[in-house]
Amino acid sequence: MNIRTITTGFNLKIPFSEKQIERISEVSLKIKKAYEKSGYKVQTVRIATQPWEKYNLSKEQLGELVVRLEKVIEDLGIDYFNIGTTREAKNISLLLNLFKKTKRGFCSVMVCDNKIIDHEAARSAARLMKQLSTVEANGFANLRFAAIFNTQPGSPFFPAAYHKGPTAFGIGTENSDLVYKAFSLAKKFEQAEKALKGILTAEYKKIEKIALRMSRDEKIKYSGIDVSIASSVKREKSIAFAFEKLGLGRFGEAGTLAVAKIITETLNKLPVKKCGYSGLMLPVLEDFGLAKRNDKRYFNLNNLLLYSAVCGTGLDTIPLPGDISEKKLYALLLDIASLAIKLDKPLSARLMPVPGKKAGEKTEFSFGYFVNTKIMDL
Fold first, then answer.
1. Is the dihedral of CA 294, 298, 303, 308 positive or negative?
2. Quick one: pLDDT at residue 90?
3. C-alpha distances in angstroms, 266 versus 179, 192, 196, 311, 318?
C-alpha cells in the first residue's frame, strides 16, 4: 500500500497571503515525513480550498490568483491544489481560462445535490469537457476536472475535493495490492470478505495511528481516511485481476457485480475514521487489468455504471471519442446524476474525450499513472 495523497483542506483567505500556505505546507510535509519514516511511499501532497466562487474575486483577479497559487505551492513542495466546486453556469464558463493558466490546478462542477439535478450545470460541465479536450495533448486536461454528484466536502481525492470548516487533513491510499493479496489468499467468493477485512483493518489501523499522532502534535484536525480502493498501473496490483482471483471469470463477466458489492460492504465495516467516497474506484486508464480487459471489450460504460450502483465512485478516467457531442456527454451525466439521487450516494465523472481518436482506437498518453487502452464507445 502507498499513500496516494495527504490532502489538507482549508479556507483560503482573501487577500491571498503566502504565509497561510507556508504554514499548511510545513504541517503537510511533516505528516508526509512521518509516513515515510514508517516505510510508506507518499506519492503526493495536496491542498483543497473552499469553493472558489466564495473568494469573491473578479475574473481577472481569479486568473491572477491561480497563477500565483501554483507558483507558491511549487516553491513549498506541494504537488497539486484544488479550488473546489461550483454549480453556477455563469461561473463554469470561467473555468476554461483557469485550466489554460495552470498545470497543477483542479476543480469540479456540482451537477446534483439534495436530490435535484441542475440541468444547466450538467450542460455546462459537458461543454467544458469538450473544450478542455483541446487544451492539452490527448485531452489530458480533463484529468484535472470532474462533474460531481452528491459529493460532500472533505474528500482527499481530486478532482472531487473541496473544503468546509476548520483546517483539516485526510489520507487517500493506493491499495489495490491489498485486495489482490486478500483475494489470492481467499481463493473462494465465500471467504473473500473475511480475508479482505482482516488485511485492510490491519493496514488502516497503522495509517490511522500515525495520523492521530500528527493531528495531536501539530494541532490540526484529522478528517479521516478515504478507504476507497484505488488502483495501480502495475499488473500485480490490478483491481481487475484481483477480482479474477476469486474464480468467477474475467472482470466484466458474470460475478463482477457480486465481487464489487463485497468490497464496498467490507469498506463500510472497517473500524477506522472514514472520509470521502470510501468506495471502490474503477478508473479505466489507471489500472493495468482494467485497461487490458477494456481492450478485449469485457465491459462497457453501462457495466461500469451498474457496478457504481453497488460500490463505486462513478466513471473515472474514461477515454472517449474526440468527436463525442456535448449532447451525449450531457446525457451520460444525467444517467450518473439519476443513479446518485436514487441511491443517495456520492458519484463523480471524469470523462476524457481524446481529439482525433475514434472508438476502438488506442490512447497515446505518456503519463506514468496511465495505462493506454482502447477508446470506449458511448
1. negative
2. 86
3. 11, 9, 7, 10, 26
* Locus of grid cell 493531528: 215
pLDDT for the residue numbered 35:
98
- Please report the sign of the dihedral spanned by the C-alpha atoms of residue 13, residue 11, residue 175, residue 317: negative
Using CB atoms within 10 A of its CB, is residue 196 exposed (0-12), middle (13-18) or buried (19+)?
buried
Rounded Cα gap, residues 6 and 223, in angstroms: 11
pTM of the complete model = 0.96
| Size (the chain), residues | 378
The neighbouring-strand residues paired with 351 are 318
For residues 59 and 20, the answer to whether their CB atoms sit within 8 Å is no
- 370, pLDDT greater than 80: yes
Percent of residues in the chain assigned helix, strand, coil, to nearest 5: 45, 20, 35
Q: What does each C-alpha distance from 198 to 191, 194, 224, 250, 259 come to in angstroms?
A: 11, 6, 19, 25, 17
> Using one digit for the tens of pLDDT, what is the confidence trace for 301-350?
999 999 999 987 899 999 999 999 999 999 999 999 999 999 999 999 99
End-to-end CA distance of the chain: give it in Å, rounded.
34
| Cα 218 to Cα 42: distance, rounded to the nearest angstrom | 19
CA distance 251 to 293: 7
Q: Of 363, 275, 291, 272, nearest to 321 (Cα)?
A: 363
pLDDT digits (tens, 9 = 90+) for 145-166: 999 999 999 999 999 999 999 9
Three-state helix/strand/coil letters over 325-373: CHHHHHHHHHHHHHHHHHHCCCEEEEEEEECCCCCCCECCCCCCCCCCC
| CA angle 182–184–188, rounded 5-degree value | 95
Helix ranges, 161-191 (H):
176-186
Cβ atoms of residues 258 and 189 within 8 Å: yes
pLDDT digits (tens, 9 = 90+) for 168-200: 999 999 999 999 999 999 988 999 999 999 999
Q: Which three cell numbers stand for residue 216?
A: 495531536
Is residue 121 within 8 Å of 87, Cβ to Cβ? Answer: yes
